[in-house]
Write a structure and sequence with these properties.
By secondary structure, the protein is an alpha+beta fold. It folds into 2 domains: about 5-265 and about 400-445, Orthogonal Bundle (2-methylcitrate dehydratase PrpD); about 270-390, 2-Layer Sandwich (60s Ribosomal Protein L30, Chain: A). The protein is about 50% helix and about 10% strand. It has helices at about 5-15, 25-45, 50-55, 75-90, 105-120, 125-145, 145-150, 155-170, 175-185, 200-220, 235-240, 250, 275-285, 305-310, 315-320, 325-335, 345, 350-355, 400-415, 420-430, 440-445, and strands spanning about 65, 75, 95, 265, 295-300, 360-365, 370-380, 385-390. The strands form 3 sheets. The protein has a 4-stranded mixed β-sheet. The radius of gyration is 21 Å and the shape is globular.
């Protein structure tokens, strides 16, 4: 493989992949990914983060051609990509490519659906573009993870912009040169610092990646040039933004080893590295333990858990998503780790604060990222233990189609109503068969 041709190789792959040629397993996973993303975007649409973004940006929007999902406001396609990307990630409930911790759908689906409202798009073309965009962003992520992430970049946005550019470029039918320009324009717009985790700005990252990726494709379509080696060049994206890079991860076996088949979906509304600990706490809670009688909760976790979610005393719901201590306490007391467990009400609840102060977490380097050990010691000296080898929602214990539908209902039914919610579930499963992909955006608003 020629390291000087990475950008062009992947551009040509996206351009030339046969229309409607996705393997059936990939096609089905693309529908699962879209359904999960849509539910997260609708569910997050009423969050304060989206309210603020709309109030700040709507006065500067162009023609109201695209919908903000879950709301009645409309805006231009570029702003819709940003706002729906924010909404889809604000609960931290979206999909996760476990190898890189990229949330693949946020940048790609947000850009695609906004573009489909601007330019008529069939469902089949939409599904192709979604799978190909996710392939691009995750392969680029594979090439630089973990070094790129370790130095502080939020890889969902920095790699996601490539996925959005490739997906929209596919719908624009860009040739190889212009697709390379689109990837180059994406490369020069890196967004996302891990320092922002626990604040509103974290959800801004996939939204801006969607908006920037669409911008890149639109500019390239008009002949706006860039480097055609922007990913791999000496002063290109991978060399500037990462201390390590493996270009074969981008180019080897394209069209054979699909990254979307490694996508996972969250049963809990927080960072995925905490999920094994939550799973263990919920399993022990089923033993009818009295949370008020717990003396100590001891967790053994993967090294990333304390690096990413070590906040001992969160004060906001967003901070609670990055506290393994809060998640364990909330799971044991409230029996869930959904949207309601990451509000100020929950993180400041005296009983939860008291219990999380009795939660201890210790790194165990031997544990896989989807594993944890949980031990609870009661005040009467009784002890309860559970070993989680693979958390629910992991590749080894994936959420079923029915569970994804239930998650969608839980996020969307209060906003859209039961009838419209059920209609959207049906539309999402059959998106690849429709002549009008944008219909689902028009229907994903309150009646």
């Amino acid at each position: 493989m020629n390291d000087t041709a990475v950008t062009r190789i992947i551009a040509d792959f996206v351009r030339a992949y046969p229309a409607g040629g996705l393997p059936e397993a990939v096609r089905h996973e693309a529908h699962r990914t879209f359904l999960n993303w849509l539910g997260c975007a609708v569910g997050g649409s009423r969050d304060e983060t989206v309210d603020i973004a709309l109030a700040a940006l709507l006065p500067f929007s162009g023609a109201p051609e695209a919908h903000v999902l879950g709301r009645r406001e409309r805006c231009d396609a570029l702003h819709a990509a940003l706002l729906n990307g924010i909404a889809s990630h604000v609960f931290d409930f979206d999909d996760t490519h476990l190898r890189t911790v990229i949330h693949p759908a946020g940048p790609v689906a947000s850009a695609l659906l906004a573009f489909a409202e601007h330019c008529p798009t069939t469902g089949s073309a939409f599904i192709d573009a979604l799978a190909l965009g996710i392939e691009v962003e995750c392969r680029i992520g594979n090439a630089v993870f973990p070094e790129h992430y370790d130095i502080g970049w939020h890889i969902t946005a920095t790699a996601g912009v490539f996925g959005a550019a490739a997906a929209v470029g596919r719908l624009l039918d860009l040739d190889t040169e212009r697709m390379s320009w689109a990837l180059g324009l994406a490369a020069t717009q890196p967004v996302g610092l891990r320092e922002m985790f626990g604040t509103m700005t974290k959800s801004f990252h996939p939204g801006r990646a969607a908006q920037n990726g669409m911008t890149a494709a639109l500019l390239a379509a008009r002949g706006y040039t860039s480097s055609i080696a922007a990913i791999e060049a000496k002063r290109g994206w991978a060399n500037i933004l990462s201390t390590g890079r493996r270009y074969a991860e981008i180019t080897d076996n394209l069209g054979g080893d699909w990254q979307i088949l490694s996508n996972t979906y969250k049963p809990f509304a927080c960072g995925i590295v905490i999920h094994p600990a939550i799973d263990g706490c919920l399993q022990l809670r089923q033993r009818d333990l009295d949370p008020g009688a717990i003396e100590r909760v001891s967790l053994k976790v993967h090294p990333l858990v304390l690096e990413l979610t070590g906040k001992r005393d969160p004060q906001t719901g967003l901070e609670g998503k990055f506290s393994v201590f809060h998640c364990a306490a909330a799971a044991l007391i409230e029996g869930d780790a959904g949207v309601k467990q990451f509000t100020e009400r929950c993180v400041r609840d005296p009983a939860i604060v008291s219990l999380r102060n009795r939660v201890e977490a210790e790194i165990d380097p031997s544990l896989d990222s989807d594993a944890a050990r949980v031990e609870i010691r009661m005040r009467d000296r009784a002890e309860h233990r559970v070993a989680i080898e693979h958390a629910i929602g992991s590749l080894a214990r994936p959420m079923t189609d029915a569970q994804l539908e239930a998650k969608f209902r839980g996020l969307s039914s209060d906003i859209l109503g039961v009838e419209r919610c059920e209609s959207l579930i049906r539309q999402a499963w059959h998106l690849g068969d429709t002549d009008d992909a944008a219909r689902i955006a028009r229907d994903a608003v309150p009646a």
